[in-house]
Design a protein that fits this description.
Largest sheet of chain A: 5 strands, parallel
Radius of gyration of chain B: 22 Å
Helix content of chain A: 40-55%
CATH class of the largest domain in chain A: Alpha Beta
Strand content of chain A: 5-15%
CATH superfamily of the largest domain in chain B: P-loop containing nucleotide triphosphate hydrolases
Strand order of the largest sheet of chain B: 9-7-10-6-11-12-13
Structural class of chain A: alpha/beta
Oligomer: heterodimer
Helix content of chain B: 40-55%
Largest interface: A-B, 55 and 49 residues
CATH topology of the largest domain in chain A: TIM Barrel
Structural class of chain B: alpha/beta
Distance between the termini of chain B: 37 Å
Shape of chain B: globular
Number of helices of chain A: 24
């Protein structure tokens, strides 16, 4: 049985265990009394928060139960926030009002009030996370840099999230045949370490108040190496262990859904594991992979498929890393997750169930410690739920999705701009998207007084049960096909996602899936709205091409040697990451990609 | 009955957004259109070459990553440069393509842009209305275009007079009979065995080791009479996107057995069109299939997956009696060792000398594929006509066996 099969067993066993504890709490008087006492003590210890009207509210809401069996069901089956199996939250505190937190938090991580509604949760072991993280990337590195400074101007804690342009995502240089026109479109163009220096110029990369997120998977190890090289150029080698941030690097979801992969799957996985092995040792504060359901959801998967494939991909990575002999407590706490949140009803509890399954699997199958059991989650509201027709409705869609995301206890969140169906979001709509989060978290009192305000309703529990069962059924399917890698190669997940996408489209066209402004309440105005389009001028694209030519000319000799060495290391089967680090100093992205492809081949697309 | 409309669809370079095009492809097929799908992250040159070789009426491009003005215009420009400006270009990109963009694109020769909110039905209707009529023949065409049009004519003649096997005489289209005859390799086997990947890996070796060799590929996907088909083999072929490779995708158009009614005619034409090798790939076949009745095939390769089920199943696979080479692909799977042994035993029952090769075609520079390539090359030095006679004799024997079973 593969690890995934063992996870299914462990979750089922855990269900049994909870039932036994419920029974025992009812029959074993001493045990029942202990539980009741703990319950009373927990309740008494919950801090009180005051609404502006003076209404007192508990920071954490607990169900109104006093019967030992039910207490056992809650404590063992769900856990308090920050306790196994983490159904109610990965951490014990979240969504505090920023002003109240000043003075509670460790000074270096405390946060000022920010226009984007930055908040965080308290946790003794980890620095607090801020839930607002906005994705950005456009034109050339200096343009994105300017946008980063604009977005984070009032934030003490700088959390940047980087989108790359098409050529970069495919590991191709800006001077490659046929890519002119796409340079800097949909994200920033990065060809060399020099671009990487420009991209984060003016930010203290080694500061505990800075973290960078990079959304790239196919060439992720190369981009990671360039980021490290850029940091070293600016701050010296001692900065490396201090670097904080995330790189997406999720190859499985690329092959299953997003199609941005450049090497054959097994080779990609090898380069990925090389990188994770190196960063979890040398950069203990970096998250080297963001296991992403977002793109699976965006490609058309149902919410259950999204969660099932994401979790099973995560378990597959854990299995590979463990097989390399990396201690589970070294890598497991460095795995993080990224989910989509749309308007389907499953989203009422999708992240809650995901946290539980991950925790049980990591504890019972992989033997991870508490930090390695936590499903640390970034959520993004659904891009595909946004439509061009009557696009201002997208503000409402995003607002509803944000509510669902925070009801699920997400640790950070990106809210989409309403103009996303057309273009890279413009500043006006980005501001509205960010303020949507501030309105929910700061203006409204829904989560800031009682962090789990809307958790645990009977309806939510019903969704939880249905979703959990459906996810485990998907695991069974994948297990039947021989595990995640075999299922991927048989394009199982791809075809499931495509079928779901097709059904979704047909439902829109036949009206069984209502979309306001498209198949319902359409006011007939089909004109495309006046929006400010963000396009990269040809002159800028040419500038990038010229810069790259200069870089290549300057480093020609050194690049040749670095690529030779890289090739040898890869041929010999050694960890490729140190050689990548050297190559990143003097080679362009495209040069490195080509060299690696000569050895391991190119990705063969699946239809 | 006229031939189905053929269109080619693709997603541009550096763009992996294939959700929309997948849905549109399915809708086209449902409405009787044959779709040659080239996949995502595709260069302009690859799209134009494929459109010409497949002789499609139009190219549909789905672009979501920007740069569409340049990309679409470049497709139109290259079509013109290669003398194929009668192939229309249409496309869409949800909200990413604005009205202003579309105006510019149309000025540059793009036929139509579909905006967000266009219904699938409207798209299908547009394609039917505008790309349904056979184009007027351009007087003088040569090279790939000429060959592609002759292949279409052969297919059309069968569509018009279906079920009369000789309806599509190839002679009318005049292959250069005096030119050299290509070596024809036939690939067959069950669906999912990896035939397409294997052929593409062989192409890589042909291209690398014979610097001047030209190769033709005739690939098949299933379709029902009067309905569309998804012709998707090109999408997974990364090495065959090359000017020295001529590839044509055919729908079986209702014929069982793994090939199209027009296959024989097309194969004959290709074999006499100055290629060094012609590789023909059947659709995924069943146990009884004996697709290569034609004496045109010099060598047959049966590609198998180790997961064929119980050993007894092997007795029923007729191709095992006649294939010159049996490839067991995906030998990285657990069952591979047992499968190889079982198949070897099975082949030992036959009187002919047959080769068995174990491959992992998905692996770059796979040793097994190298061996297969060498076997094929060795054989090409042996007497071709001799082998062709042997093959047809074996085919006859195997057919008898099928009938008496």
């Amino acid at each position: 049985m593969s690890k995934l099969g063992q996870v299914v067993e462990a979750v089922e066993k855990h269900g049994q265990f909870v039932l036994e504890q419920v029974k025992r709490a009812r029959s074993d008087e001493k045990f029942g009394r202990e539980l009741s006492e703990r319950w009373q003590k927990t309740k008494a210890g919950i801090p009180i928060s005051h609404a502006p009207t003076g209404l007192p509210l508990p920071r954490m809401a607990l169900p109104e139960i006093d019967e030992p069996g039910e207490i056992a069901r809650y404590l063992f089956g769900e856990g308090l926030p920050g306790e196994f199996p983490f159904l109610n939250g990965a951490y014990q505190e979240m969504y505090l009002e920023p002003l109240e937190r000043v003075g509670i938090e460790d000074g270096s991580y405390g946060n000022k009030k920010s226009p984007n509604g930055s908040q965080g949760q308290k946790n003794a072991a980890r620095p607090p996370e801020e839930p607002t993280r906005l994705f950005s990337g456009l034109m050339l590195a200096e343009d994105t840099n300017k946008r980063f400074h604009f977005l984070s101007a009032h934030q003490r804690s700088k959390r940047l999230s980087t989108a790359f342009d098409g050529p970069t995502l495919y590991g191709i240089d800006s001077d490659a045949d046929g890519v002119f026109g796409k340079i800097g479109e949909g994200g920033v163009a990065v060809d060399t370490v020099e671009d990487m220096v420009r991209l984060y110029d003016g930010f203290e990369l080694g500061s505990p108040d800075f973290s960078a997120s990079m959304t790239i998977s196919g060439p992720a190890p190369i981009i990671m190496a360039m980021y490290i090289a850029a940091a070293k150029r600016r701050f010296g080698p001692s900065v490396v262990p201090k670097l904080r941030g995330t790189i997406q690097a999720d190859i499985f979801k690329e092959v299953q859904a997003q199609n941005e992969t450049i090497f054959p799957t097994e080779a990609s996985l090898r380069f990925l594991c090389d990188m994770i092995e190196w960063t979890t040792r040398e950069m203990p504060r970096w998250y080297p992979v963001s296991i992403s359901g977002y793109h699976i959801g965006e490609a058309g998967a149902t919410p259950v498929q999204q969660a099932a494939y994401t979790l099973s991909n995560g378990f597959a990575y854990a299995e590979m890393l463990a097989a390399r002999g990396i201690p589970v407590d070294q890598f497991a706490p460095r795995l993080s997750f990224f989910l989509d949140c749309g308007l389907d009803v499953e989203y009422v509890a999708l992240a809650r169930v995901s946290r539980k399954i991950w925790a049980i699997g990591m504890r019972d199958v992989f033997g991870a410690n508490s930090r390695g059991q936590m499903f640390k989650l970034h959520t993004q509201t659904s891009g595909r739920s946004l439509i061009a027709a009557e696009f201002k409705n997208n503000l409402t869609r995003t607002a509803a999705e944000l509510m669902l995301a925070y009801m699920n206890g997400t640790n950070s969140c990106h809210s989409n701009s309403a103009d996303e169906p057309f273009t890279t979001p413009s500043e006006e709509w980005i501001r509205l998207a960010a303020h949507g989060q501030a309105i929910l978290l700061e203006e409204s009192g829904i989560f800031k007084h009682t962090m789990n305000m809307l958790s645990g309703s009977p309806g939510m529990k019903a969704v939880e049960r249905a979703v959990e069962k459906a996810i485990l059924d998907e695991f069974h399917q994948i297990e039947e096909l021989g595990g995640v890698l075999a299922a991927v190669e048989n394009r199982y997940q791809r075809s499931q996602i495509q079928n779901a996408a097709h059904r979704y489209e047909r439902q829109i066209y036949d009206g069984t899936r209502p979309i306001v402004g498209l198949n319902r309440y359409r006011d007939g105005a089909d004109e495309m709205p006046e929006i400010e389009l963000v396009r990269t001028p040809r002159a800028k694209q040419q500038l990038q091409v010229n810069r790259l030519a200069k870089f290549k000319k300057k480093n020609a000799e050194k690049a040749k040697r670095a690529l030779q060495k890289l090739g040898k290391v890869v041929e010999r089967g050694e960890n490729s990451f140190p050689a990548l680090l050297e190559a990143a100093e003097v080679c362009s992205l495209g040069q490195i990609t080509s060299r690696l492809q000569e050895i391991v081949g190119r990705f063969r697309p699946m239809v | 009955m006229s031939s189905p409309i053929r269109v080619l669809t693709a997603v541009p370079i550096c763009d992996g957004h294939d959700s929309a095009i997948n849905t549109i492809n399915l809708e086209f097929i449902r409405h009787g259109i044959e779709v040659v799908y080239l996949g995502f992250h595709r260069y302009v040159g690859d799209i134009v070459r494929a459109a010409i070789q497949e002789d499609v009426a139009a190219i549909g491009i789905s672009s979501y990553n920007g740069g569409h003005v340049e990309f679409f215009a470049e497709v139109v420009r290259q079509l013109g440069k290669r003398g194929a400006s009668d192939i229309a270009v249409f496309g869409g990109g949800g909200g990413t393509i604005t009205q202003d963009d579309a105006t510019v694109m149309k000025r540059k020769g793009v036929d139509q842009i579909f905006f967000a909110g266009t219904s699938l039905a409207d798209m299908v209707e547009y394609v039917r209305q505008h790309y349904g009529k056979r184009r007027t023949q351009v007087a003088k065409v040569e090279g790939d275009i000429a060959l592609a049009r002759k292949l279409t004519a052969i297919e059309d003649s069968f569509a018009q007079r279906r079920r009369r096997r000789n309806a599509g005489s190839t002679r009318r289209f005049g292959p250069e009979r005096n030119s050299k005859r290509a070596r024809v390799l036939g690939f067959t086997g069950p669906g999912g065995a990896g035939k397409t990947t294997l052929i593409d890996e062989l192409v890589l070796r042909f291209l690398q080791r014979s610097p001047k060799a030209r190769i033709a590929i005739l690939s098949h996907d299933p379709s029902v009479v009067g309905e569309g088909a998804l012709l998707g083999d090109r999408a997974t072929m990364i090495n065959s996107q090359n000017d020295r490779v001529f590839m044509r995708s055919m729908a079986t158009r209702g014929q069982s057995g793994g090939l199209s009614p027009a296959t024989e005619g097309c194969l004959d034409l290709l074999a006499h069109s100055d290629f060094d090798y012609v590789m023909i790939e059947t659709v995924g076949t069943g146990q009884e299939a004996l697709p290569f009745r034609s004496t045109l095939v010099d060598q047959t390769v049966l590609v198998m997956n180790p997961d064929y089920g119980a050993r007894l199943q092997l007795q029923k696979i007729v191709m095992l009696d006649v294939a010159d080479i049996v490839v067991v692909n995906k030998t990285d799977l657990e069952r591979a060792k047992a499968a190889l042994l079982e198949i070897e035993h099975r082949l030992a029952q036959n009187k002919y000398r047959q080769q068995i090769v174990a491959t992992v075609a998905k692996r770059h520079r796979d040793h097994g594929v190298d061996m297969l390539y060498d076997l094929i090359m060795q054989d090409s030095t042996a007497g071709v006509s001799d082998r062709r006679n042997q093959t047809s004799e074996r085919q006859r024997a195997a057919t008898m066996k099928t009938r008496t079973r």
